[in-house]
């Protein structure tokens, strides 16, 4: 357990509004990730970060941006939420000594 | 990029029997293969992993095998118990660029 907390855990928002999800980890892990989970698609990588201010796109990055101003925090922003972004979002961080990746408990986002 | 295929999507086994879930991957450079268990309403939890320099790894009732030549790996759960009911995901990764998941297997343990 890497002490990963996500906030908010549940959110309902309207189409077109901006939304920011926060991920906080307490293990000083260098790598952090944002995934979304949808029925029939499993977990898909949105963006990842390999250090403060260092981020890169994953396989489903369109419509999302991220920021990493501190090692412990990784923010995911939906600039203008759409109904297709209704999903469960998982943050993860990677053990610095290997590839072990730990997940947070998820953020349920509904865009109406 | 990497693509991970997982089969079956649903698996039902009698309590006490064994369960096997199989995955294939496409990128021969992938070198880390974790398996996650996800219970309803929770995040995925790592249950076992294997690296490309190892062919098999075992931890109590669970084991994972890796065939690098064929690019496939499998999860074996023996003496299944009701608490093994969950969704299981295989994944593949290479050196800190995130892991790519299979689409999951829903395992039902029948009484």
Task: Write structural notes for this entry.
- The complex is a heterodimer of chains A (112) and B (111).
- By secondary structure, chain A is mostly beta strands.
- Chain A contains no helices and eleven strands.
- In chain A, strand 7 (64-70) and strand 8 (73-78) form a beta hairpin.
- The model of chain A has no long low-confidence stretch (mean pLDDT 94).
- Helices cover 0% and strands 57% of the residues of chain B.
- In chain B, a hairpin with a 4-residue loop joins strand 7 and strand 8 (72-77).
- The interface between A and B is medium-sized, with 25 and 25 residues.
- How many angstroms does the end-to-end distance of chain A come to? 33 Å
Helix content of chain B: under 10%
Q: Give helix % range of chain A.
A: under 10%
Distance between the termini of chain B: 41 Å
What's the rounded overall pLDDT mean of chain B?
Answer: 93
Measured by DSSP, the beta-strand proportion of chain B falls in: over 45%
Biggest interface, CB < 8 A: A-B, 25 and 25 residues
SS content category of chain B: mainly beta
3D shape of chain A: globular
Overall pLDDT of chain A: 94
Low-confidence stretches of chain B: none
Largest sheet of chain A: 7 strands, mixed
The succession of helices and strands of chain B, N to C, reads EEEEEEEEEEE
* SS-derived structural category of chain A: mainly beta
Throw out a few tags for this protein.
heterodimer, A: 112 residues, mainly beta, seven-stranded mixed beta sheet, four-stranded antiparallel beta sheet, globular, B: 111 residues, six-stranded mixed beta sheet, five-stranded antiparallel beta sheet, 11 strands, 0% helix
């Amino acid at each position: 357990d890497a002490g990963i907390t996500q906030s908010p855990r549940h959110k309902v928002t309207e189409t077109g509004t901006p939304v920011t999800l926060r991920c906080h980890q307490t293990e000083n892990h260098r790598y952090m990730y944002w995934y979304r989970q949808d029925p029939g698609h499993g977990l898909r990588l949105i963006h990842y970060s390999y250090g403060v201010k260092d981020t890169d796109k994953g396989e489903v990055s369109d419509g999302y941006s991220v920021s990493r101003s501190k090692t412990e925090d990784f923010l995911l922003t939906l600039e203008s939420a759409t109904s297709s972004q209704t999903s469960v979002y998982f943050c993860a961080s990677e053990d610095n000594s290997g590839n072990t990746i730990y997940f947070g408990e998820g953020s349920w986002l509904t865009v109406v | 990029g990497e693509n991970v295929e997982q089969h079956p999507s649903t698996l039902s086994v009698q309590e006490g029997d064994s369960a096997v879930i199989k995955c294939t991957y496409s990128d021969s450079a992938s070198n880390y293969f974790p398996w996650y268990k996800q219970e309803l309403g929770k995040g995925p939890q790592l249950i076992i992993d294997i690296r490309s320099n190892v062919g098999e790894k075992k931890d109590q009732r669970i084991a994972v095998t890796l065939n690098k030549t064929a690019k496939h790996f499998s999860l074996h759960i023996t003496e299944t118990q009701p608490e093994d009911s969950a969704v299981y995901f295989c994944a593949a990764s290479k050196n800190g660029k995130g892991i790519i998941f299979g689409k999951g297997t829903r395992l039902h343990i029948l009484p």
